[in-house]
Design goal:
By secondary structure, the protein is α/β, with parallel strands linked by helices. The protein contains 21 helices and 14 strands. The chain is 46% helix and 16% strand. It binds S-adenosylmethionine (SAM). S-adenosylmethionine binds next to α3.
């Protein structure tokens, strides 16, 4: 090796860290700070499943049962407000769906949307739909660090939502080799691909009886549960929605997802063992490495267990998204597609991704009626955060195609507000307004379009014809 290369190598020696102490996890908050709302609007970090209306509905029922149990035990006064802390709230879309559902179930609750990243807190504080809920006292926005928590409100009962949070908090890696020897996995993340090294170590509790393999241990999630229990007096319910882990052999390195930040599947079995006996774990009937809702509670009430059996253990949200994938198959019949869309709890994002079929296939009158009802109920549940996929436009085109012109106009206007003056949106809006007999507004729309694109042939032709009165 020549001297220059040797010097360069010596200046940057390879350093291995236990995974939980590596820059990968220690810099998580900084990464989210840098990304801000782009993390979600640009599709860098997934968000659809953990903020969907169906999950809000399931969680509202579980929280209502928890509130009943706390009231019966005297831990929550009849007029006392329950505090629901969304830890690492991201877009805030969960609060948008959850707060009204809790109110509809008669649960007096304030959903506190929290994050460590001030860029996210700014975006949450300026989101207009959340501002409206805040005016009604249903939501608020505050800084909160999962690992150094503080009490946010007085009161004897608290719910914490951990949606795609435990995967973001630090994990450690342990391995048992085929000969029974045990190791901790250390990482050098300064090189590409990351380098792993395994050093002798004893296994933490919970892994002792496992056969040979390599495991990610959610030490950050375990530390958060412990810190939350020490910080909040009274009964606690934690609802954790996250991906699980797939088995890895004793020669495999652990799987970590990279999307601007890093995330690791959560081993809920070992988390439950690390958290016991202070926390009771309620898990899905069929464990999943893709996605599942889990509950941890310090309450011994059977009311919560009953609610979990009804709405928690079936992993409804995963089933919904499996059916969503299946509905993408062009052989799915329209009635089956409509049945599916009606079961999403008015999810405009899922509807917008599947509504092309409602335009491309001839519908019976009854099917068209169902489709318009769906569009009308889902449209107000669209949460605005400038995602690249233009949900209002997709819904508007479908409403337009089905002859629901007033709904189409409202949705085109929404799309213009959210995604800017796109020529296709302006043209379609002009057509819908013209079909409603509002020629003046239709012409104004084309004028705006032509300011953006003076030679737009269709707009020039339509404007001339409409102004001539033909
Ligand atoms: C993967 S995103 C999940 C966002 C949202 N819960 C969802 O399901 O779409 C992780 C979020 O946790 C936040 N976060 C990271 N470390 C945190 C910590 N120590 N305490 C609180 N929030 C944290 C990030 O800023 C980010 O908003």
């Amino acid at each position: 090796m020549d001297r220059a290369r040797l010097a360069a190598v010596c200046q940057t020696p390879t350093v291995f860290h236990p995974l939980h102490q590596s820059p990968l996890f220690l810099a998580q908050a900084d990464r989210y700070e840098e990304l801000g709302p782009r993390a979600w609007s640009e599709g860098i970090v997934p968000w659809r499943v953990t903020t969907c209306p169906l999950l809000a509905d399931v969680e509202a029922h579980l929280i209502a049962a928890f509130a009943r149990a706390c009231t019966a035990a005297g831990a929550l006064g009849r007029d006392e407000q329950l505090t629901v802390i969304d830890v690492g709230a991201g877009t805030g879309r969960m609060g948008f769906h959850l707060a009204p559902r809790l109110a509809a179930l008669g649960v007096r609750a304030e959903v506190v949307l929290t994050d460590v990243a001030s860029s996210n807190l700014e975006a949450l504080g300026s989101q207009p739909q959340l501002a409206e809920l805040a005016r009604g006292g249903l939501v608020s926005v505050e800084h909160f660090d999962a690992l150094t928590p503080r009490r946010l409100r007085p009161g004897g009962a608290t719910v914490l939502l951990a949606h795609y949070l435990f995967d973001t908090l630090p994990h450690r890696v342990f391995r048992r080799a085929a000969d029974g020897a045990t190791f901790e996995g250390l990482i050098d993340d300064a090189v590409e691909p990351w380098a792993w090294r395994y050093e002798p170590a004893s296994l933490p509790p919970g892994l002792g009886s496992r056969p040979p393999g390599t495991w990610l241990i959610p030490v950050g999630a375990a530390a958060a549960l412990e810190a939350w229990r020490r910080t909040f007096p009274g009964a606690l319910l934690v609802l954790a929605a996250d991906k699980g882990v797939s088995p890895r052999g004793p020669h495999d390195d652990p799987l970590l997802a990279r999307h601007g930040s890093v995330s690791a599947g959560v081993d809920f079995d070992v988390l439950a063992q690390l958290a016991a006996p202070a926390w009771r774990h309620l898990g899905p009937r069929d464990p999943s490495d893709v996605f599942a809702l889990h509950a941890f509670t310090t309450s011994g009430s059977t009311t919560i267990d009953d609610a979990w059996r009804d709405r928690g253990s079936g992993n409804e949200v995963l089933r919904l998204h499996e059916r969503f994938e299946a509905c993408g198959d062009p052989t799915t019949g329209i009635d089956a597609l409509l049945d599916f869309l009606e079961s999403t709890g008015n999810d405009p994002d899922l509807l917008a991704q599947r509504c092309d079929r409602l335009r491309e296939t001839p519908l019976t009158e009854a099917q068209a009626h169902r489709a318009v009802q769906l569009l009308a109920s889902a449209a107000p549940r669209h949460f605005v955060f400038r995602q690249h996929f233009d949900v209002p436009f997709n819904l508007a085109v479908t409403a337009h195609h089905l002859g629901a012109l007033r709904l189409a106009v409202a949705l085109y206007l929404r799309s213009l507000e959210e995604s800017g003056a796109h020529p296709a949106t302006l043209l379609n809006l002009a057509l819908a307004q013209h079909a409603l007999g509002d020629v003046e507004r239709a012409c104004e729309c084309l004028d705006v379009l032509l300011e953006h694109e003076p030679a737009h042939p269709r707009a020039v032709e339509l404007l001339a014809s409409w102004r001539r009165g033909s």
